[in-house]
Each structure stands twice: as C-alpha cells, then as structure tokens.
C-alpha cells in the first residue's frame, strides 16, 4: 500500500515538474499569441496588471470587431476615463503570465527565435499612448529583456504596429505586452481597441 502511494506521489511530482518546464517551452509555430480572440486557447497572457489610475480603466475583451483582421472575430476594448481616480495621473495594463505576476512568481515563456511583436490598434478619438511595451517587469523572476514603441499617436483607423525584438533576450518573458497613457495627454480619456497581439518569427 505504501509503495503504491509512493509511486503515485512520484508520478504527480514528475507531472508537476514537467508542466512547469512545459510553460517555458515555446510553441513551434509562426505566431505566439498574447491575444487572438476572446477565450481562445492560443491566448498565452492575462491582462491582469492594471497600473496607475486603475480605477479609471474598464476592460471588454470580447468587443465584436467591425472589420476583423487576420481572422480574429473579437477585439479588446479598454476604456480610460482620465479622472485620476487613484491620483496617479496615468494608467495602463500589463498582460502577465501567470496572472498578477510582478516578478515574484516563476512563469512566462522562452520566446527565443521570435523577431517582433505585432498588433492592431485604433481609438474612438485621437489618443496619445505613452508606450506599448514587451517585458520590463522586474523582481526575483524578472523579464529577461524589454522593448517598446513610444510614444504612439493612435487614430480612429485600424493600424498595424510592430515592436522590434530581433536583438532582445527573450528567454523569459512574463510581461507579454503592455500599454500606458497619461491624463495630461488625454484629458478627455479614450477608448483603445487592440487585436491580434502576437509574437512573430
């Protein structure tokens, strides 16, 4: 009986170790998605890292697109009220793995071999985004590197953007994507739409 329990525990421990290692193995594909569609199994990061005036933010990750791009049916809609609810005068969000990971937890993915991150964006009115970003989370289990696109004037027209990652160390990326904006640059707030956020080889 004890031998059976020991074998069961051994198998469970091995499975746990394998699962943890598996999180670090990048899928062998052309694209690695941060967001493809609402609830899609290809999504690998969670928009859990709300920053600054997080009380000014609302998220709808199932916004039905007017003109789908690259096969996606839904998009992400962020509403930023710019009311400075938390007194920071800026707001933004990180997509993290696992959720709410600010560098204190193991996780993320080894994205070695991917050369860029691309995404589509538009706004309901001209909006100035301080930066779009990959990586940059610090801590015990920090991101291995970071890259950004800043600043970006987002218009009412869907536009594809690219963050160059060709010379970056992508061996451990827990912060898959982020955006931030200031109240000073967007006093009336905005709605920011994002879609097809993905790493590309």
Task: State the gist of this model.
With 201 residues, the protein is mainly β. It contains 1 helix and 13 strands. Strands 1, 3, 4, 6, 11 and 13 form a 6-stranded antiparallel sheet that branches.
Outline the structure in words.
The chain has one helix and 13 strands; from the N terminus they run αβββββββββββββ. It is mainly β and 201 residues long. The protein has a single domain, classed as Jelly Rolls (Sandwich), CATH 2.60.120. Strands 1, 3, 4, 6, 11 and 13 form a six-stranded antiparallel sheet that branches. Strands 2-5-12-8-9 form a five-stranded antiparallel sheet, with no helix packed on it.
Unreliable runs, pLDDT <50, ≥5 residues? Answer: 1-22
CATH class term: Mainly Beta
Q: Can you tell me the CATH architecture?
A: Sandwich
Q: Judging from the principal axes of the Cα atoms, what is the shape?
A: globular
Taken in chain order, the helices and strands follow as HEEEEEEEEEEEEE
| Beta strands, count | 13
Distance between the termini: 51 Å
Helix content: 10-25%
Classify the secondary structure makeup into a structural class: mainly beta
Number of domains as seen in the coordinates: 1
- The CATH superfamily name is Galactose-binding lectin
Helix tally equals 1
| Mean pLDDT across every amino acid position | 88
């Amino acid at each position: 009986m004890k031998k059976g329990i020991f074998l069961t525990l051994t198998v469970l421990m091995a499975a746990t170790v394998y699962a943890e290692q598996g999180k670090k193995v990048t899928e062998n594909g052309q694209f690695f998605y941060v967001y493809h569609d609402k609830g899609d199994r290809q999504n690998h990061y969670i928009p859990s890292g709300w920053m600054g005036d997080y009380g000014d933010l609302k998220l709808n990750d199932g916004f039905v697109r007017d003109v789908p791009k690259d096969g996606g049916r839904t998009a992400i809609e962020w509403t930023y009220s710019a009311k400075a609810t938390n007194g920071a005068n800026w707001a933004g969000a990180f997509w993290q793995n696992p959720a709410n990971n600010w560098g204190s937890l193991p996780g993320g993915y080894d994205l070695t071999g991917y050369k860029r991150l691309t995404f589509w964006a538009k706004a309901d009115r001209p909006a100035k985004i301080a930066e779009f970003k990959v990586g940059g989370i610090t801590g015990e289990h920090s991101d291995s590197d970071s890259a950004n696109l800043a600043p970006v004037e987002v218009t009412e027209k869907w536009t594809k953007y690219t963050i160059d990652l060709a010379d970056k160390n992508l061996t451990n990326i827990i912060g898959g994507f982020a955006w931030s904006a200031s109240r000073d640059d967007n006093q009336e707030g905005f709605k920011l739409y994002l879609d097809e956020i993905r790493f590309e080889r």
